[in-house]
Structure formats: structure tokens, C-alpha cells
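Support request, priority: normal
Reporter: lab tech (M.K.)
Component: structure prediction queue

Hi team, I submitted a job for acetate--CoA ligase from Paramagnetospirillum caucaseum yesterday, and the status page still shows it as pending. I've pasted the exact input below so you can check whether something in the sequence is tripping the parser. The sequence length should be 560 residues. Please let me know if I need to resubmit or if it's stuck on your end.
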Amino acid sequence: MAELAGAPDGALNIGSVCADRHVRLGRGAATAISWLGRRQERRDITYGELAEQSGRIARVLAGQGLEPGETVAVLLGRIPELYGAALGIWKAGGVYCPLFAAFGPGPIKARLELGKAAILITSDELYARKVASSRAALPHLRQVLLVGEDGAIAVLPQGCADLRALVAAAQPMEAVPTTPDAPAFLHFTSGTTGTPKGVLHPHRAVLAHLVTGRKVFGLTEADVFWCTADPGWVTSTSYGIIAPLVCGAALVADEAELEPRRWYGILHDEKVTAWYTTPTAIRTMMRYGAALARSYRENSLRVAASVGEPLNAEAVMWGQKALGVPFLDTWWQTETGAITIANGPGTDRRPGSMGRPLPGVEAVIMRCEAGTPKQVDGIDVVGELAIRTCWPSMFSGALGEETRYGDCFRDGWYFTGDLVKRDKDGFIWFVGRADDMIKCGGLQIGPFEVEGSLMDHPAVAEIGVVGKPDMLVREVPVAFVSLNPGFEAGDALRAELISYARQELGAGMAPREIHFVEELPKTNSGKIMRRVLKAKAMGEPDGGDILSTLPPCPGRYDDE
Ligand code: WT7
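Reply from support: The job had stalled in the queue. We restarted it manually and it finished. Here are the results:
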């Protein structure tokens, strides 16, 4: 904490430790952000410029009457203002609440309402399409600050101001002295069922970003770090903004949608040293083939890592070969705020597993006995992953839902809602979400185990497995599969995949049905929406808010 504290009274402000601190240490001229535009534009922003820009934005927000602790929602793509806005909001003492630009007007309105956003920063184009129609129904929203998509804003809509014009006229402001416990950022979790949960993190979370930036990615001021996450996802806040900046590295911000050819180009041209992406990205690269990867084999990479979904061993091995560097899996959640379990760094890795808890993280596996969760020590025993609550980036609240927040904790443990098992060397293996488990006769089937096995078949590009209700055995596993190029959907392949699964997994665990699909339904953060697949398997429309998650509940995983 001492390394980061900016003021003698113990104040800690993410905005100032990510920018002003580097300027104070004489690194104002170092590159903080290399921004790559959709139309091949580029802009390099130094730490000095970032400190000044965020100070100006903080002044603008304070000038709009923003009180410390109030929420500022941000609905922007990866444009330079996104970074100045996040840091500026922190410096002004506000709570940064990014939203997915891919959301429609409904989910945006719901989150502005739930988060009681006082100010919204967005683009003129997104405002017109996604917010204007609900503005009258959002009494908390006092001001909207617009960034012109194409430079100047021709006609300012009523009740909006031009952010760039205000920033140009503002004097930079010093960060307000926030305490480590003051709320700093708010995300709505994007799982598969239930109503959205507003997950709140305090300024102290930055300690976990500093530690994991250094320990997992080995970040120093010499690094170029690229995190591909969408700004609406906590991964972007924690690793697309905070971790590289607090470590003094340069971050790459690419405005474009992800596309393998462009990725390889960026990794190469920007001399990226550490890359943080998703299993979907690496599997997409696999689809594009090894020849393309080989043509970019010369790169500056030191390490690559993925998060968000289980990373199968085949993808790890492929990634390592294609990129020529260690490829780590990392596990965490919106609620833990930063990486808590990682495969590596160093030589200590086990492809296919999530890895082991980071130093300082105490993680155990719990099973319920007569309604009381108990730690299990056995090898390969499936239970719910629980974490001691002292990790600095652990969430500090579920917005306006005391009970829902309290429900996640018991006896000083936070219950993650993920089912895992541990091998003899302490590596943790993902089994599934507690709410995704398939109960088939006497068997508990983890969808990921079935998915992982079929992923090894050359025809399978992606797969989602869900339980379909069955009169006899309660549920049977059924699979939705998208195919690699060169394979044809049809009865012959269906029979082949089923027999392959029976051989690999045994008849009890093998899917009873295989449905071929072009693409699997995914959340904006890239998670397979098993609930949608389940509805499909049952022949129902998917309906409902598909972008929220079930609250974790201690001991929900019971033997029954
Ligand atoms: C859930 C959390 C991760 C940060 C961003 C957001 C799943 C995450 C892994 C992994 C298997 C993983 C879990 C977790 N998950 N990382 N390495 N292997 N599953 O996360 O939207 O809050 O989702 O993502 O189920 O609980 P989130």
C-alpha cells in the first residue's frame, strides 16, 4: 500500500496511482496508451498526457456537481476518451460503471436505473440509438456528456453537453483523497440467468491489480500489454486499464472488432510482450489455421493468457505452439475483481486446469452436509470453490442488495458458484457452474468434462452441453456443436461424434443427442449461454434477460 499511497493521510485513488504517480516519478514522457483506430488511425498517449486529460475530465465532472460516491456510467467503445474518463471519474471520487456498447436500449436503461447513474458519458451516435428514448424515465441521470463519433457534434441533443469542448476549457484537477474503502467501480455480472447483479469494488482493489500484473504477467515499465476485453467487462477495467497502468507498462487499445489477421498484425507490429485474451479468441485462431500463425512467428511476446471460460488443454498446446510462448489459464470472477487462480507463471503449469491459487489467496472446495458447507480435502472430489475474503479486490457490495451480497458469504468464505475438483498436486480443475450441472440417474455430469472431451475430435470447433429433462433418469446430456471448416453436418457425423464420446467418456456421460449449429449463443463476455441451449433442447423460446446471473449461494451444491 505504501508504494501506492499518494497522500500522507493514507488516501488511495486508482486514478492518481495509474497516471499522476508515474509523472511524479519522472516517467511522464513514457507511453501509457497506444491507441489503434478502426480506420488504421493511431495515437500514442503518454503518462503525462493521460494525467492531464484525466485531471481535466475530473474537473468537468466536479463542475457538473458530481459528488464523491456517485455513479458515472460510461457507454463507449475503445476510444481514447474511455481511458481518460475512467481515470477522471476516479480522480473526481466517482464510481466508474462501464456498459457494453452492444447492449440494446432495454438493458442499458435497466443498468442506468439500478446503478443510479448521475452522469453518463457516451457518444452522440450511441446516445441517439440507445439512450435518448429512455432519458425521460431516468430521473437520477442529471447530465449526459457526449463525445462526437466523427469529431464535432453538429446539433447537441437537449439535456446533453459536449465533453470534448468542456475538457478543452477545463484546468486539470488533483485527485480527491479517496479512502481505500471508497467505492471505485461497478459492473453488472453477465452470467446466464436471473436479474443483473451490480458488483461494487473499492479503490483498494488496485493492490490486487498491481500484484497480479507483476506476478502473473511479469509486468514492468518495459512491457507492452494488450488485453482484448470489451470495455463493458470487468476484465477490461482490471486488465485493460488498471493493471498495466499501475505497473507503468504501455497498454494497447484496439478499437476494432477482433479478427485473427488483425490480432497477429497487432501482436507483431506493436511488439506486444504480454497478451490477455479469451478461449474463444484462441479457438478462433485455431480455426484460421497454423499457417497464418507461422507467418507471424517472429514476435516480442513473453507470455499469453486467457480468462472467462474453461481453456481446454488442446487450445493451450496449440496456443503455445502458434505463439511460441507459455499460454496460461487464469480464473477469476467479476466478484473477485482480479485474478485469483492461475496456471503458472513459471514452469509450474498443467494444461487444461485453471492452475493454483495465487500467493495470498486461500481457496478451498466445499460440499454440503446436512445443509452445512464443509471443506473437502480429497483428490478429485467435486465441490463448490470458496475463497477467504481477505483478497484486496474482493467485491465490497452487491448494489442495493444487502441480502444478496450476504448470501455469497459464510464463515469468512466467499462462495463462487463454480464447481471444481483438485488433483494431487493442488491444481484446480473446472467442472461447471453449480447451476449448470446435469443430474443423470445417479451421475453428476459436469458439462465441461463432456465438452472438453468432444473438443478433441477434429470436427468440433465449439460445443455446449446441457441437461435435457428425461422421465427416466431426470436429465440426459445433449450437445450443441459448431463445426470446423471441411466437416459436414449430417447423420453420419452425428453418429460418429456420439460413438466417439461413448468411447472417450462411457455411455453414461456421452451426449444422447447432437445438434449442429452455426454458432453457439454467447454473452458479450464470451460465455456460452447454456440456459439458451437448454431452452432449445426443450423446444422452448429462450426469452428473459439472458445477460445476468444467478446469485451464488453457499452450499447450493448439495448431494441430495
Ligand atoms: C465466471 C466468472 C473472469 C473475469 C471476468 C468475468 C467462469 C472464468 C474461468 C476459467 C473456467 C472460468 C467461471 C466464473 N470462468 N475464468 N479460467 N476456467 N471458467 O467474469 O462474467 O464474472 O464470470 O466465468 O464460471 O465463475 P464473470
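The pocket of WT7 is lined by residues 189-190, 234-235, 307-311, 329-334, 354, 416, 418, 430, 433, 525 (CB under 6 Å). The domain at 436-538 is CATH 3.30.300.30 (GMP Synthetase; Chain A, domain 3). Let us know if anything else looks off. Ticket resolved.
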